[in-house]
């Protein structure tokens, strides 16, 4: 019998990877599919309804239905699935990146909430990885374990206002030691999760040694409790009108914030090293969730265009114009992108994130654009309703659009892949020369001098 | 000396049409450019700041700065520019559609507010055209004149919830006579402007004769005062997170609403005829404003990528990746689309909307997609800021996206243009046959039998 | 150590499938890579030089270097690799479709000649499959065995002039029994291989029972010796100026051709059944070769843009404009398409061609367009030389372009995939209804009535 | 009554420019339309049949039907239409660039032959412009007048093998004075027209002063009689399989060719100046012909998809898949591109080629890609026949593809437009600053400090 995940992905992509799944992986995946179908998807609109509309109150709520989902998920063992035991022996679960990739696709059908329900939502995931890998035992006890338990949430504070902080050397936030304290001053924005009432800590990137001749040693990361004096949430940034409450993406000012020395992560000057490690697999998580979002949008589109109550001029919507072709193209694009992400996940399993940089970068620039296109076609099929609050695709679109900017804009990944390809030039040129040498002999052998 | 509009459009497109402008047209255009630059653009963010954030209060405000702009504009004679005297001798201004098209592009740089400042904003424009063309003297006095004066606003109530009302035969709203009254029952949504405190009337389309064998005679339009008992504003529809307060696009229920017989427009069964006439030139207005929005986005992008404070890795943004190519493509796409719209406007002037259906339909499906693409590139250049409330391009994108759905989705216009082209087949086939006949003679003349 | 194929494909796609290869598969693949590098690629331009330019003589040559390659390949066991033992127990080689798919990519780097060298070139491959599956023992002995030995070649004669024969019911060629003979009359074109001096047989599709009420029982296929009286090669059809001599794609008239009854394949009325079976896996072969062609073009492009002798204005070509981005996009597109084809090949292995129709159709419409785009970018990088006889990419482009038309135009495959997706609608609608049911309970539980 | 050109272009684009045509322009255009319809189009396939297939003989023919067309055209006054009197008072005809642009579109429907029939074919047109503008009276008498009379033909010899000669500083051909002679040594290719038996002269660009510190003063141009000793036609370059006989695009070696000093054009070091002037308007000619080719392809596509004999599965081709949408998009793309070229032509008329560089560059990178896309859709509609010698669209495609490379590849024009746009940055930034200033005052006026 086919694995239940087939209903949520494609039989052929599953066939490509099924034998790379452990029994535990298959069972967990089956449970997750059931959980998403039975518990998460029915709760989606309920959760939105539980967020107050009042511009102040929206930021103070812990959504009841999501809290209840978390309890259920934990009981089912659907928890922290992103944290691969192979890479995090102490805290991890015995799942490979490939196995989690498929789970992330399943989660992607249910929006942010689905990931939160199984304690796999950004930015907590990356922060837990940082603390699991680089945190001191004390830091792990104080911050990592409550995060792993889903009791608190966290923010990652890197992006700065007024500069292009995608070049980390442009960072202006200052982190300096004063006695046995660290003092932080800086102006950040787009700090996801900082609005959440449960957010207990910010991992803050800043410059601790701005004059270091090695510009990748200038940065450090410190843990800042979100209730530390001087942490000011200025406002939520909006994404096409959405404020993403209660989590939000906030503008935050750190105004002479003081934390103990023990809150430094890994060591002085290690900030760049930490963010490099943090971003790799996380990009794949985003990508795989985006595949799920795209598939969800296509599924909705198929329902809409076959809905008899939507006929116009005596025909089903699918009988008009280019609808069938749009569906076919979306199918093919999702399928191709899905295989690319699975392939990247498998590379990470085999060669770590470092050995999968090409595949990660490809997925990073291919998948969000693909998903946006698929969702946009679905929007078009739904008419005005497609851009409204009555369908999840408008919100999905906005979220996907930010993925073309977050964790490095498309152009960065495109350039990286292109430059890497250019490095193949010497080997290619060498091979071409060898072939020309052999060709010469054939030219002689067949008496063709002057004919080529 | 070059006309001041050149700064806001392109010298070469202006050169194509300059000699089609009257002196009055040129002067008015020059005044408008000045007004937009000096008054409207500085007021744009001010206006947004004057809309309350409270979800109730947002719908009760008349934005002070916009009110002040209206007073100034009217004094300057920049008023009702859309209403061409050639088509509306009594109420119109002596401007052609082509002349207004260029003005609409200029207005398009300043968002919805710019159009409102000169009393040229939808849906009032279309409604004023309807009342000017089809209204009774009484209706004109009571409703049209205050609209023309900018004292009240209005809504056009056509789209229905739960059905595909782009096929007007699917309309379910009932309009029936009872004594000397008309009774209206129906469930509409996406009724733009219905949220505005100044909205005084809805033009409501419904079925008055649902069994008429001619399905284009089944519909009628009546004027419904927005304060009539039974008019219920259910909620604002959102466009990707935006509610577009205070105007909004509302869900509205008409529950046994009663209006006097004299509120019927033009006559029983004339609804379809009225909407046909209403939609033509209005589409061009949207298109031309979209050109302005796209040009605004490109201008912002150019500023951003040349901003020295945005350098990364030692280079200006424009020195990275495909930015220059993106700017070049945007330039070319705007220019081509602009000429298409100008050409459509000129067709309307020459042959009425009916004789310009091909050009209007082409503009309608080309322009919004083009503008979305240009704005999307600008968003990408701005990074996360591009999707936020800090730049007008995110809001512009959302508005443009609805234009691929409003007044007929893209597919309708594409099919219309394609079907119209297919009608050229007989003439083409005839010409091909004539050419083959002449070819035969040449074959004979040159002794080439059997060679073709 | 990495398998040598990695040099010709990508490490990550190889990692996805390596464990699906048998030892024999891996060894054969390694030998093939070596053979293509050492023998085929050096012979490519030599082979072209050995084709006479005289318009008559071009069709009489057996290319010496290709003949020599065939001898070598056979000796190495690189022979008939396409014929999977699993499907053809008597004549096949122990390779899966997936294994052959990778080999076909390798062969695709060397054009038509590479495939011929290992006796894997169309249309012989499909014809051998037909004869191996449906041929009588006598037919197999007389025609299949010499084909398997590479002693003769063959043509598949289906497409007709003047009608749209992609709809097989439009076929006009008549095949009728007269005593113990079959008489064939018809006008075909685009009969690939019919120009080759070694072409010994045509498999001809025609109507044997045009009035049969089941329109898929009207057709039959007969073996026509190419030297039978009445077989007239009218002319070679050209593909963008190329005549593809000596094989060609010929216009052929069958004028009262008579063959013995024993030349009927499978039985009367079995024509449609045979072509259905013939086309499936062959489409994947084409696709996989196209991946190889695209990768070859990209490799050439990388060499060109890094060539110091091609600098302009002091910069390498790759430092201009969008070259690096074009390379990155090509890389990603090849990679995604490659995974799609591998996935389709694996589906065929698991579920036969019938169970892989979705994946085959996706590959069929995605791959040729992708490859054309990649090759086109390479052409652009080469300047005018790119469209000329001095680079293989111009010829590759023309060949790839025909693949969007051959074996069903893109539109057929797109519609098929789209329609198949629409069949998921009832299951999707059912699931949505279940979710709504569960949602209702949650609404009740959390007291949210009226809020959704 | 509508002007007859409307049949060959669009009514709306004609409406945009009609009032810019002189009476002479309108009459000439009407005659040209008639001539193309009655004489040129019927002769198209005849001309191809009159070119021998023998690879030697193909280069020795003067096509009889084209010669006859030339006689007729000259008699009708349809001659040298490209040479605007405004710019070439002595030799020109009283037509503007805009007027000729429309004529070039009409000519573009008939391929290369149509232009030759009215003595408006490249590279003669550019060469005549050079000689008319820069030639000495002696040069004009000897070379220009026979060219203007259509008695001889010519070549422009710039592109070099082995280097990227799009950067003119890479040119290696040597031009040096020896006594009263000039000695030329160089290796060129893609020399269009050099294969023609009537080709009497080459304008050869080379380096006369390779060490000049001003690198745009290093080049000179000389007239080389094609029968001068040392002029060696090596081979025709092919464009996707086509050799374009009898004109061809030849590889040419100049081996110690000697010409009198009087063959120097304009003066030593003037080579770069001459080619700059030569290329501007010519690019527009190509573009406008391409519009005609695209429209021709669309017209053929419309005939094909409405042809009852091409029905499949009971439906016309246009009733399948995305055909109608493809036609609509092609229509819109042609229309937009046409307006761009007309606008560029008008700019040239107003401000010379120099003042129209933006518009020329836009047209140059937009039009060929657009036309390729339209022609490619037509090919797809024709099935295999579309890529063959039986339809003009395959040949048109190949020719159009070279236009993305000739006279500067796309990337050069794209970069030029993008860089030019970037120059608007200071003005835009200034305007933005002014707006912010005014905004500040409004913020104060309305008491909004801290709200923006």
TrEMBL record, chains A, B, C, D:
Gene3D superfamilies: Acyl-CoA dehydrogenase/oxidase, N-terminal domain, Butyryl-CoA Dehydrogenase, subunit A, domain 2, Butyryl-CoA Dehydrogenase, subunit A, domain 3. One of its GO terms (molecular function) is flavin adenine dinucleotide binding. InterPro entries: Acyl-CoA_dehydrogenase, Acyl-CoA_Oxase/DH_mid-dom, Acyl-CoA_Oxase/DH_mid-dom_sf, AcylCo_DH-like_C, AcylCo_DH/oxidase_C, AcylCoA_DH/ox_N, AcylCoA_DH/ox_N_sf, AcylCoA_DH/oxidase_NM_dom_sf. The keyword Oxidoreductase applies. Pfam families: Acyl-CoA_dh_1, Acyl-CoA_dh_M, Acyl-CoA_dh_N. Keywords: FAD, Flavoprotein, Oxidoreductase. Residues 269-420 form the Acyl-CoA dehydrogenase/oxidase C-terminal domain. GO terms for cellular component: cytoplasm. Residues 63-151 form the Acyl-CoA dehydrogenase/oxidase N-terminal domain. Residues 155-257 form the Acyl-CoA oxidase/dehydrogenase middle domain. Belongs to the acyl-CoA dehydrogenase family. This is Acyl-CoA dehydrogenase NM domain-like protein. It comes from Cristinia sonorae.
């Amino acid at each position: 019998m086919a694995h239940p995940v087939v209903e949520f992905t494609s039989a052929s992509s599953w066939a490509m990877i099924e034998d790379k799944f452990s029994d535990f992986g298959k069972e967990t995946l089956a449970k997750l599919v059931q959980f998403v179908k039975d518990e998460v998807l029915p709760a989606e609109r309920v959760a939105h309804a539980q967020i107050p509309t009042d511009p102040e109150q929206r930021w103070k709520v812990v959504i009841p239905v999501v809290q209840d989902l978390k309890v259920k998920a934990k009981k089912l063992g659907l928890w922290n699935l992103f944290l691969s035991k192979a890479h995090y022996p102490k805290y991890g679960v015995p799942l490979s990146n490939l196995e989690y990739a498929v789970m992330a696709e399943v989660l992607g059908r249910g929006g942010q909430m689905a990931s939160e329900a199984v304690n796999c939502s950004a930015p907590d995931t990356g922060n837990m990885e940082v603390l699991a890998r680089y945190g001191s035992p004390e830091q792990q006890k104080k911050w990592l374990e409550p995060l792993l338990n889903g009791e608190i949430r966290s923010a990652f504070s890197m992006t700065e206002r007024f500069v292009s902080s995608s070049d980390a050397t442009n960072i202006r936030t200052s982190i300096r030691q004063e006695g046995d304290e660290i003092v932080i001053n800086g102006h950040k924005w787009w700090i996801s999760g900082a609005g959440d009432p449960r957010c207990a800590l910010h991992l803050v990137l800043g410059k601790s040694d701005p004059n270091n001749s090695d510009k990748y040693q200038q940065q450090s990361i410190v843990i800042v409790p979100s209730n530390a004096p001087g942490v000011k949430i200025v406002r939520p940034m909006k994404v096409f009108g959405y404020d993403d409450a209660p989590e939000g993406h906030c503008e935050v000012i750190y105004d002479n914030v003081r934390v103990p020395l023990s809150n430094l992560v890994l060591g002085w000057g290690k900030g760049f090293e930490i963010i490099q490690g943090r971003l790799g697999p996380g990009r794949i998580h985003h990508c795989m969730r985006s595949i799920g979002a795209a598939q969800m949008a296509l599924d909705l589109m198929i329902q809409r265009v076959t809905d008899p109550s939507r006929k116009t001029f005596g025909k089903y919507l699918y009988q008009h114009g280019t609808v069938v072709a749009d569906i076919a193209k979306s199918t093919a694009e999702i399928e191709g992108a899905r295989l690319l992400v699975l392939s990247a996940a498998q590379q990470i399993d085999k060669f770590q994130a470092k050995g999968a940089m090409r595949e990660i970068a490809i997925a990073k620039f291919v998948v969000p654009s693909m998903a946006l296109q698929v969702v946009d076609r679905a929007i078009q099929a739904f008419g005005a309703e497609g851009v409204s609050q009555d369908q999840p695709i408008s919100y999905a679109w906005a979220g996907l659009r930010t993925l073309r900017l977050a964790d490095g804009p498309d152009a960065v990944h495109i350039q990286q892949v292109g430059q890497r390809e250019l490095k193949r030039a010497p080997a290619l040129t060498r091979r071409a020369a060898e072939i020309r040498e052999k060709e010469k002999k054939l030219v002689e052998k067949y008496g063709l001098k002057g004919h080529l």
